[in-house]
Amino acid sequence: MNLDFSQIVPYIPFMLKGIWTTIQFVIVSIIVGSILGTVLALFKIGTVKPLRWFADAYTSIFRGTPLILQLMIIYYSVPQLTGYDIEAFTSAVLAFGLNSSAYISEIIRAGIQAVDKGQMEAAQALGIPYRAMMKDIILPQALKNILPALMNEFITLTKESAIVSTIGYLDLMRRAQVVGSDLFRNFEPLLFVGFIYWCMVMVLTVIGRMIERRLKLSD
Amino acid sequence: MINVQNLYKKFGSNLVLNDISATIKSGEVVSIIGPSGSGKSTLLRCLNLLEQPTSGTVLINGVDLSAKGANIDRSRQQIGMVFQHFHLFPHLTVLQNLTYAPIKVKGLKRAEANEQAKGLLAKVGLSDKAAAYPSSLSGGQKQRVAIARALAMEPELLLFDEPTSALDPEMVKEVLDVMKDLAKSGMTMVVVTHEMGFAREVADRVIFLDHGTLVEEGSPADFFDNPKTERARDFLEKVL
């Protein structure tokens, strides 16, 4: 055993900066994924056949191939195809947003379908238009059912975000590797960022529980 | 007010409504009765197009609801509906249940809608429940809120789909009493019910369905005391 955490002390500010880098792109990815996922879910339960077909094909592709492959394709092949030099941040957000929207759309679809059919009928009988019904009556109830699954997806996304280290984006993971190769010691920096990832997930878990409690007010 | 002409409804190959024609006048209270599976609820649900008729027309105030391109949301504003299982919005308070549609659909100001909703809650005897969530109410209270919610849109017509069938026996009366008051106030009502007492006492007319066919219709006195058809006699023997 040869552990010496004192050696990483000078590198701590460098690694801590990775928290913000990671959080930044995780938050943007969650927003992109949620918006796109909701739209796809509405396509899936809608009556317009081409949209339904598109949403199903989309989910099949993004769930059916590795995330790291999607990231590589976006980061390395977009410049090759278009000549546009895509930034690491942009490709990371695209890959994670597009990928998680496939998962989120399935979660939301299941959540919407789990809402009692009578709710839709009651809204229709009152003459409430489809959009308002979805936004104010159906989705809030669906959200309550799916919150645990949704939090799970956000937690997975936060942890999987470490994959962006492979395209050189200076997130937490990448910074640990940089420090590791600088010091020729890997265990300490890896353990350090591992602890930070765990803390971030804990914060998400607590936020999830708080929202769940608020939504339970009507029970 | 309502004019149903040659209405057919099929679920797959199963014929649920077979050539129904009926007229309901403004201010009339009509009870639809019949054995389970006779198509009563389906007929009622065709009146606001929760069920799309396979063929035939439904005219509400002369407007053909089943026509392509009909503004169905607008017509539904004039037709309130009360369901067997209430279908209150569980994430909204009782008051919000009553005000949501008037604000969103009719464009009422929140203050006006609240005022009106409080009046309606008083009418169904639930003034103290405005801030409660539906999950804290009893079945009878939920159904009274559901009636108030339908009334909040100021409909010309109210449809009731077995409004007391999901209630504990001791709660049936409180709901029927509200419905009786409504009938007395001149509301046009179509009520699918198993409550023969209610049909006899409150309805102006009874429609008897069996196997999707309109077998007999008439005043409650005639129908209950002097049924013309064999099938109606059979049915009444079992339920009375």
UniProtKB/TrEMBL annotation, chain B:
SUPFAM superfamilies: P-loop containing nucleoside triphosphate hydrolases (SSF52540). GO terms for molecular function: ATP binding. It is a peripheral membrane protein. It is found in: Cell membrane. Pfam families: ABC_tran. Residues 2-236 form the ABC transporter domain. The keyword Transferase does not apply. Keywords: Amino-acid transport, ATP-binding, Cell membrane, Membrane, Nucleotide-binding, Transport. PROSITE patterns: ABC_TRANSPORTER_1, ABC_TRANSPORTER_2. InterPro entries: AAA+_ATPase, ABC_ATPase_HisP-typ, ABC_transporter-like_ATP-bd, ABC_transporter-like_CS, MetN_ABC_transporter-like, P-loop_NTPase. The keyword Ribosomal protein does not apply. Its main location: membrane. PANTHER family: AMINO ACID IMPORT ATP-BINDING PROTEIN, GLUTAMATE_ASPARTATE IMPORT ATP-BINDING PROTEIN GLTL. Belongs to the ABC transporter superfamily. This is Peptide ABC transporter ATP-binding protein.
